[in-house]
């Protein structure tokens, strides 16, 4: 269900319009995002990078003529927290800051709602002194201040006995839950803890949850912005029960602990539908589980929002609007290839075209697109699906991955017979994608004739805007040139470094695309046909103004978006 526009949203639209911070088109786009993703308009304009959160905070405070506060940076004492419980704080979108005598200072997201302030006066029994914060800041502060999830882990562990360690194979798949429901739930502590591990992952916007057994302990780690971070550590005796709970949710065999298993399930969490891909792997100390989270509510299928360089964006748009040919995206697992392909499909989506995808698995469902899941056990491979798709009168075909010669040959045949084909490979850069296809056994002439553009991609971590700081002093000139900067970059250079704060917990918040785009020119086609190596292909592409992965990353370092260390971690040298 889409979100209704609130009175505060309307007031905020008026404030933003008067301040001329957004164009009408940007405001309309942010409003649509707010309604579709079920988030407040204030969070939508920040997520869309139309307005920075500190700028929004200052604007609201000026309009309300009240002091601003970044409530994420305050830590009220326990006595103040007890005045309002978490549910009340969430309902009114407020956080208690301090109490002096009978006066309670409250951070409020909507300082214009006098009736709510009157309600809070009655609820708390205090005179209210409001200060202004944003809805996003308050949501983060509520999570940090109350830390309900962490307390529940300890309570569950303390109240658990050995009789609750066994999980029976029952149809226990949850359809919807939220952390508030755990308090009054009659489920066993094992189910509550497994749900809590999952819920915290969703709350922290992780891409993967790892549950890892060791000789004397169990670790839960979350992959956030591409990097694994340790979280809770349940007792070793709970390990088998937690894994069994996840197997039940995924439709797997809880009695089988000697071979790998793969499954999936869906949960509806606080109104958002989340897909999970589950992998179970037997180890010497028990089974390890990895859960990949696919949250369509976080998916922005807009090429303009992926952070492409201007030239790369132009290259991609030209490639995906050609009448036929093959557009390839390459990179390691977790580099954002699927998002780029989905965004490209979304860009060319038209009621006049028949667009069909074959994927393993289907990660996100796209309106207006026919999507086919691979089923190897039943004989539905990429190649088999492609043969059938070509008999379905397609205009555009997306292949999740080209893994073998058979799939490559069918895809190239489709590209040469009037179809636009999108796909991915696993290679280190754009030029080596061409030689990979040749190494698979595809004829060089067919590769040169069918491929129209190759994009190589990585995801780099974005510096937290709240705590990043200027680097002083800068690294030595020789070191800067060694990593790939040029002399011109060194003039008036400003570099930033990661610090870490309560908001980001490590110096980085979010990710952005680092990529190189290589449209296939006539000169490149001749090199490919004549047996040119990946190095020769790259040399020609650079002559044609291709920006390499490393150079793209360093340009973002110069813009203050990330750090040298992050670019070195994500890319190889030129």
Notes on the protein architecture:
This protein has 574 residues and is an alpha/beta fold. It folds into 3 domains: 135 residues, 2-Layer Sandwich (GMP Synthetase, Chain A, domain 3); 120 residues, Beta-Lactamase (2-Layer Sandwich), CATH 3.30.450.90; 200 residues, P-loop containing nucleotide triphosphate hydrolases (Rossmann fold). Helices cover 39% and strands 21% of the residues. It has 23 helices and 19 strands. The strands form 4 sheets. A 7-stranded mixed β-sheet has the order 4-8-9-10-5-6-7. A hairpin with a 2-residue loop joins β1 and β2. α16 crosses α18 and α18 packs antiparallel against α20. The longest helix has 15 residues. It is globular and about 85 Å long. It starts with 6 loop residues before the first helix and ends with a helix.
Distinctive features:
Rossmann fold; globular; alpha/beta; Beta-Lactamase; 7-stranded mixed sheet; 574 residues; GMP Synthetase, Chain A, domain 3
Record the SSE blueprint.
Blueprint: H1 7-19, H2 24-37, H3 41-47, H4 53-64, H5 78-81, H6 86-92, E1 94-100, E2 103-108, H7 114-124, E3 127-132, H8 135-146, H9 148-158, E4 176-177, H10 179-182, H11 189-203, E5 208-213, E6 218-224, E7 227-230, H12 239-250, E8 261-269, E9 272-283, E10 286-295, H13 310-320, E11 325-330, H14 337-348, E12 355-359, E13 370-373, H15 382-389, E14 396-399, H16 405-416, E15 420-425, H17 430-440, H18 444-450, E16 451-463, E17 469-470, H19 477-483, E18 496-497, E19 508-519, H20 522-529, H21 534-543, H22 549-558, H23 564-570
Helix pairs in contact: 2-3, 9-11, 11-12, 15-16, 16-18, 17-21, 18-20, 20-21, 22-23
